[in-house]
Amino acid sequence: MIVGAGRMPAAATAGESIGAASAIAAQVGGPEGQAVLQAAQEAFIHAADRGVVVAAAVALAGGVVVWRALPGRERAQAPAAYPARVAA
What we know:
- By secondary structure, this protein is mainly α.
- It has a domain at 10-68.
- It is 64% helix and 0% strand.
- It is built from three helices and no strands.
- α2 (18-28) runs antiparallel to α3.
- The mean pLDDT is 79.
């Protein structure tokens, strides 16, 4: 992606991915570049954090559905000790 020259504004490009934001931060340099990189890293971690919370909630809900919906199994009866022999 080429930034500038009317192709794509830097802010829009930086919002596409953490890699694009890192590249723009390197091009800008100085405190402004560091600020862009810091903002991109914080946004990435915030989004990943939300994704993990949503995935955990879905997994928990699935576990509750399975626990409540699937029928339980009765425990198998242990075989009786050797039955007494009947005299013939």
